[in-house]
Amino acid sequence: xxxxxxxxxxxxxxxYFFQSSRAYGGVSGFYTYGPQGAALKENIEDTWRERFTLKxxxxxxxxxxxxxxxxxxxxxxxxxxxxxxxxxxxxxxSHRADHIIEDNTGIEEAESLPIxxxxxxxxxxxxxxxxxxxxxxxQAIEEFNLMFQTSIxxxxxxxxxxxxxxxxxIFVEFxxxxxxxxxxxxxxxxxxxxxxxxxxxPRKSLLRLREFTQAELELFIDPEEDEPALDVxxxxxxxxxxxxxxxxxxxxxxxxxxxxxxxEGIISDxxxxxxxxxxxxxxxxxxxxxxxxxFRQHLPGELAHYAADCWDAEALVDGDWIELAGFANRGDxxxxxxxxxxxxxxxxxxxxxxxxxxxRATVDPDMSYLGxxxxxxxxxxxxxxxTLAERDRSAFDGDSVEVEVDGEAYEIPSEHVNFEVSxxxxxxxxxxxxxxxxxxxxxxxxxxxxxxxxREDEVEGEERSYLALKPEVAPTFVGVFPxxxxxxxxxxxxxxxxxxxxxxxxxxxxxxxxxxxRYRRQDEVGTxxxxxxxxxPEGTATIRERDSTxxxxxxxxxxxxxxxxxxxGERTFDTL
Length: 576
Ligand code: GAP
Description:
- It is a single chain.
- The protein is of the alpha+beta class.
- The protein folds into 3 domains: 3-81 and 146-333 and 436-442, Bira Bifunctional Protein, Domain 2 (BirA Bifunctional Protein, domain 2); 354-426, no CATH class; 476-575, Rossmann fold, CATH 3.40.50.800.
- The strands form 8 sheets. Strands 3-10-11-21-16-15-14-12-13 form a 9-stranded mixed β-sheet. The protein has a 5-stranded mixed β-sheet with strand order 25-24-26-27-28, with helices on both faces.
- It is elongated.
- Residues 165, 167, 197, 199, 208-209, 212, 214, 216, 323-326, 437, 439, 441, 443-444 line the site of glycyl-adenosine-5'-phosphate (GAP).
């Protein structure tokens, strides 16, 4: 079995995750988290929330999943959120053309290639349908929009879409959210929740889903003034794979400190660099193996329609690099778009330190002259005069002013224009904030955590497989076992389990089978510690650590404190 097949089998058998709706044949791209998986997911989300919401002083929102069509007209998803679909001429299975190319040639990031080139590559490499082997040469590639459409209310008069990213639920509420931030930049808004993409060919278990969970942070900044606290992450070392490194023949990722990468221009955006540093720390914390991790910059053709620059966090899983998160500078794209498509104000008033005195050029065209003279064009001429006044005051120096409307020139005598330059005091200006966006996939993080935690070894001559999950995210923190069913041990063990639960620890009580079997069961789901109650000496218990299988004996009345300290990281097992 491949490592992936082993992990996926374990995940299903031990309640991590499995394909949904199996009773009805299952649907690709939809997965259910079992008891272990749901707890692991929640723990991962909690650590993300703690790091990216609470510790950063941001606030979290919870927006609806269904949003009306105009949102996605403005965001660009209706027009530009497509994948390359190729249909097999024989079995009619649908495939992503870029994936077929990546899987069968040495070409990477085929997604960034233009469609005619992808069509040529299918023919050139004689690529075939992964399902039935039919030749795909000459098959046309279609742009397939990934959004799930629905109808809001009865009938189909109001189309809606399931959000393809949680981000839009934040952007559309900016006019309200800026009030909560007291109109002060920078401020960050986070959201953890489901997103939906009608993927052409969902694959690799949790890696490409049709329903998945994102944890996104939208940081609104004034690009001219706001700077990140780069010193917080200046010394964080990370493997960086810039676009330039990828494009050079022997380019390899380089591990360097985030601060140095900014100083040397490898990461050009200090905000993106800041979040790469935080993300590296967070991924380490939840248990991603840093030997199998890198940050990769997007190649120019790979950038999303809204992004000026973007880096991905990537992890190596069973030989393939997979994208875990994206860190983009979205510029003013989103707020400008929603500002121009809606009637709301997506700008923010930026107060100057000192009021500014400015000269303003205005016109007050004499409509009783323009109307009779120019008929239907009069209003447009009035507007063109104002635009010209703002752009070029010297145009008003002569006896007449010339403006162009719809390609036709009009000459207006100066006495009917009423041009004037007046002095005004301005307290500030309206700006469209820019957006820095770290966008994390929770399912991919969870899948990678489980993969990277998978271990096999031998204990007392017996093969063992276990998940070396970090105690902070492990679904169950401690297993509690009575050694035997005699001497009141089950009752004592039950009351220990209750006490530990009251202390907020997640506990699995198990009294069936040999102690060895019970340890193996907990090892396999990644429980970091097991407590066994035995009768001798009275009033004590052993704590066994999963990875080393070592045991220490502690007094029962200290047990809860010791385990709590192990959970918070105040103590480590080897110091007990
Ligand atoms: N708001 C930006 C955005 O959505 P993205 O790179 O398309 O950016 C962010 O998505 C993250 O969401 C990805 O890095 C990945 O972890 C996760 N993701 C995207 N599509 C996914 C899918 N079909 N299945 C599972 N996770 C997915």
